[in-house]
Design brief:
The complex is a heterodimer of chains A (244) and B (242). Chain A is α/β, with parallel strands linked by helices and 244 residues long. Chain A is built from nine helices and ten strands. Helices cover 38% and strands 25% of the residues of chain A. Chain B has a single domain, classed as MetI-like fold, CATH 1.10.3720. Classes of the chains: A alpha/beta (244), B mainly alpha (242).
């Protein structure tokens, strides 16, 4: 039970000569909400993508529910079903309706029947407040609506944890709140989450841990409420001064 | 004035002779069916061939990718007319000398084979461009939902590719219709070949005009369709949901 859902050990990642992750150690336990902040290029998005196996790492190990996903024998597709991911650019499937976006993977990957998948899908669309948009194509939805569909799509796989990669950064300001509310609800329900964001209000309200990254390392981490008021590292202070 | 009048009269007599036209067009209908047959099968096979080549180019095996690239470049460069000649006469000669009789092809299968080889190379490029124009985030989203490469390709990337490739593939079809005329050099009983035969019998080139009328009548609607598809799916169209 006490085994962390996500565990990174000395993770290094390079793009060519550029080392974007320089030794990341991280443990995320069940129902924790870890909020990751940091300047662009600090490696926070890359870290999320590594956790989901979208980026190979050069050194170190990553465990999901105790399984080493960096091992060559690991079936990454199986691991990914436990790890939901939501992207900055939504990445909804434009040729599928909102509901079909939600049912595709449960049917094709988990082998659920259409009726079961649609039931799950409808429930999730209701949860994100978009029941009436089930038959609409992504192109007709606003950015905020698309992002909520994308969250529901990830949830449709019934994952054990969710990764959020700057999911409100591409949204108009007035649409951000709806998306954040969905995420806050999820956090309160006990979903394990790693959230890369600049939304300090979100961190303060539901974050169990705040983590500041810069230049590929975790500079400082702690209780969000304490850390936002009283960062101990100078780099954290500077960064918080800019975003708050 | 007289010379010009005479010139027009000659033109009408030799190229636009109404009587011969009326006589020839019904005779050319079986040849039109041959064109349809060649088109249908070449289109089908080159669609499959082009898609297979394009997908093979995505396989992480460098020699295989190089081989496909070489195929595509070579057959885009080689004139179809020469390819048809090699297939029909060259392979035929080799087959009859060696006794490998399966190499001796009838004109219609030879035409289908040649057009398929060339147009597979063309469509491979179209499919490659289509696949690479689907944003990378689509593949990542599919993978993050637990789909393997194959399922992500099948359910997410290829359906979007199909929308993108419809206009260029329609243009390919138009080019292919006209390229079926090249099969006349290997005695395929298609439109141009038959009209030249009839021209010989009538000692009058008007049957060529009959063939021209049929080619245009058949191709023109497709050109309109292509233009419509271009507006609907093409580059200028609003991307959905990006």
């Amino acid at each position: 039970m006490d085994q962390p859902l996500i565990k990174l050990e000395g993770v290094h990642k390079r793009f060519g000569d550029l080392e974007v992750l320089r030794g990341i150690d991280l443990e995320v336990r069940r129902s924790e909400v870890v909020v990751v902040i940091g300047p662009s290029g600090s490696g926070k998005s890359t870290m999320l993508r590594c956790i989901n196996g979208l980026e190979p790492i050069h050194l170190g190990r990553i465990f999901i529910e105790g399984i080493d996903i960096t091992g060559s024998k690991t079936n990454i597709n199986q691991i990914r079903q436990k790890v939901g991911m939501v992207f900055q650019q939504f990445n909804l499937f434009p040729h599928k309706t909102a509901l079909e976006n939600l049912t595709l993977s449960p049917m094709k990957v988990q082998g659920k029947s259409q009726s079961v998948a649609e039931q799950i899908g409808q429930d999730l669309l209701a949860k994100v407040g978009l029941s009436e948009k089930a038959d609409e194509y992504p192109g007709t939805l606003s950015g905020g609506q698309q992002q909520r569909v994308a969250i529901a799509r990830a949830l449709a796989m019934q994952p054990d944890m969710m990764l959020f990669d700057e999911v409100t950064s591409a949204l108009d300001p007035e649409l951000v709140a709806d998306v954040l509310n969905v995420m806050k609800d999820l956090a309160r329900e006990g979903m394990t989450m790693v959230v890369v964001t600049h939304e300090m209000g979100f961190a303060r309200e539901v974050g169990s841990r705040l983590m500041f990254m810069d230049e590929g390392v975790i500079v400082e981490e702690g209780d969000p409420r304490v850390m936002i008021e009283n960062p101990s590292e100078e780099r954290t202070q500077k960064f918080l001064g800019m975003v708050l | 004035m007289d010379a010009i009048g005479q010139a027009f009269a000659d033109l009408e007599r030799y190229f636009f002779n109404i009587e011969i036209l009326r006589d020839t067009i019904p005779q050319l209908l079986p040849a039109l069916l041959v064109v349809f047959e060649i088109l249908f099968l070449s289109l089908l096979f080159s669609f499959i061939g082009g898609l297979t080549l394009a997908l093979t180019r995505l396989v992480p095996l460098r020699p295989l990718r190089w081989l496909v690239g070489a195929y595509v470049d070579f057959f885009r460069a080689l004139p179809l007319l020469l390819l048809l000649t090699y297939i029909y006469y060259g392979l035929g000669l080799f087959g009859s000398t060696t006794g490998l009789r399966f190499l001796i092809l009838d004109p219609i299968p030879a035409a289908i084979l040649g057009i398929t080889i060339t147009y597979s190379a063309y469509s491979a490029e179209i499919f490659r461009a289509g696949i690479s124009s689907v944003p990378h985030g689509q593949m990542e989203a599919a993978r993050s939902l637990g789909m393997n490469n194959y399922k992500a390709m099948l359910h997410v990337v290829l359906p979007q590719t199909m929308r993108i490739v419809v206009p260029p593939l329609t243009n390919e079809l138009i080019a292919m219709i006209k390229d079926t005329a090249l099969a006349s050099v290997i005695t395929t009983p298609e439109l141009l070949f038959r009209s030249r035969e009839i021209m010989g019998l009538k000692a009058n080139p008007t049957p060529l005009t009959a063939a021209a009328i049929l080619y245009v009548a058949f191709t023109l609607p497709l050109i309109r369709v292509a233009a419509r598809l271009e507006r609907r799916y093409g580059k200028g169209a609003r991307p959905v949901g990006m």
